[in-house]
Amino acid sequence: MAARPAGEYSGGSRRKLALGIALVGGVDAVLLDEPSSGMDPGARRAMWSFIIEATGKRDGAFVGGAKSDGLAVVLTTHSMEECEALCTRVGIMHQGRLRCLGSSSHLKLRFGGGYLLEVHAADDDAAQARLAAYVARELGGEETEDRHFGRAKFRLPACGQSMARVFRAMEAAKADLGVQAYGLSMPTLEQVFLSVVGEILQG
């Protein structure tokens, strides 16, 4: 491959080459524009691992500008997955302006509308009504959509809420409510982006 002209490389290979050239001088900071665009999933994850290694981090988070013993990287991307994999600080731009900046978890709590609780319980109206009443009373939750085969989803407010509190509340009433399984998640960065843009468009 080293003997081939760079112009004959695939798009993904050109991006790998560009990243290597950017880092070869031992720089302290580098700007990347869509670094993994056009790559297959395996190559994309290999590049992410390389970037994480280059920043001096080992835990899957990466520098947004402050790591004295590693490379500082600023990147632009349309891939929310790439943001989740690499960024400790995320900025959302819309119409050429920076609209918000913060950690992924902060933005999710600020703009994502709280936690999402999904519960699988007995598939009958009385049991589901008891479940909805309990979640509303104890956790301030609001059902988000129609139930399907005993599965219900609730949006929980982020303010004054913690995952530990939700787990305690669900475990305490699990048997009484006939809960078979439940899961708690935060909104995705894509949902955060849509929320931020929606607020802007609404004025």
Automatic annotation (TrEMBL):
It comes from the Eukaryota. Keywords: Hydrolase, Repeat, Transport. The keyword Repeat applies. The keyword Repeat applies. Residues 112-185 form the ABCA1-4-like C-terminal R2 regulatory domain. Residues 4-82 form the ATPase AAA-type core domain. GO terms for molecular function: ABC-type transporter activity; ATP binding; ATP hydrolysis activity; lipid transporter activity. Coiled coil: none annotated. GO terms for cellular component: membrane. This is P-loop containing nucleoside triphosphate hydrolase protein. It comes from Coccomyxa subellipsoidea (strain C-169). The lineage of its organism: Eukaryota, Viridiplantae, Chlorophyta, core chlorophytes, Trebouxiophyceae.
